[in-house]
Amino acid sequence: MTNSATETLSVVVEREVPFPPEKIWRALTQPHLIEEWLMKNDFKPVVDHRFNLSADWGAVDCQVLSVEPNKTLSYTWAAYGLESVVTWTLTPTGKGTHLRMEQSGFRADQQQAYQGAKFGWQRFFAALEQVVARSD
Amino acid sequence: MPDPHDILFRALADPTRRAIFERLCREGEQTVGSLTVRSGVSQPAVSKHLGVLKQARLVRDRHEGRQTHYSAQLGALGPLIDWTSQMAAFWQTRFDRLEDLLKRMDQ
After folding, report:
1. Where are the beta strands (DSSP E) in B1-107?
2. Is this complex scored with an ipTM above 0.85?
3. A35 in reach of chain B (CB within 8 A)
4. Nearest CA of chain A to the CA of B65: how many Å?
């Protein structure tokens, strides 16, 4: 649930996919392909481009942060009052690609805005873990 | 009526407010005055932040004489934990769909 390396609230999903990075990149960046696995969208692989993802249940407001073809892609993801950042990382392997998605709950610049944040986050997650332990 | 998730996320999205909450988590119950020291903002600003945290049920206040003491309410973080588990489940299904799509795509 937590990632102590980045000291942020994050969700990580990663898989070995038996296809080359170039092919996966197309699925991650071409609107008609994105729609097939994620949501309807007006995505463009251009830094600062604002786009929306929409589904029956609601919409997500996004903005492209970085684009490195066939390697990494990141965009902001704002939904339910929480701004997060989704980062895709593609690493070629002998059999295909290691595909990693990380969604971080709070932007790094927001954390760094407070000088005590580094220590605070460690404690914050220690506190969160106590809550989790109690809810089991 | 705003969504309780929304209130919680908005309360924690502000770095100064989050820092105040973190201090209450690690140092225990405190007054507005002691929270203002080292916070880098004025006492009225700290009071305002505490008001938002209270609305999100992240802090509880206790009056003692002329002082008000604030303490962190960790149970209010529950929806945040829900968020991570919900998003993890969401992305797992999207990865399944992405893999299906890749099988169907031309090289």
Report:
1. 30-31, 59-64, 67-72
2. no
3. no
4. 30
> Which candidate, B48, B16, B18, places its Cα nearest to that of B32?
B48
Residues B59-73 pLDDT 10s:
999 999 888 999 998
Tell me the H-state helices in chain A.
Answer: 21-29, 31-37, 108-112, 117-135
**pLDDT for A59-98, tens place per residue?**
889 999 999 999 999 999 887 656 788 999 999 999 999 9
Q: Which residue, among A101, A107, A112, has the nearest Cα to A85 in the 3D structure?
A: A107
pLDDT tens readout for residues A11-34 = 888 999 999 999 999 999 999 999
Asked if the Cβ–Cβ distance from B91 to A101 is below 8 Å, we say yes
CB nearest to B6's CB, from A80, A103, A130: A80
Is A78's Cβ below 8 Å from some Cβ in B? no
Dihedral class, residue A64 (left if φ above 0, else alpha if ψ from -120 to 50, else beta): beta
Q: Would the CB atoms of B22 and A105 count as touching at under 8 Å? A: no
Q: Which residue of A has its CA nearest to B74?
A: A131
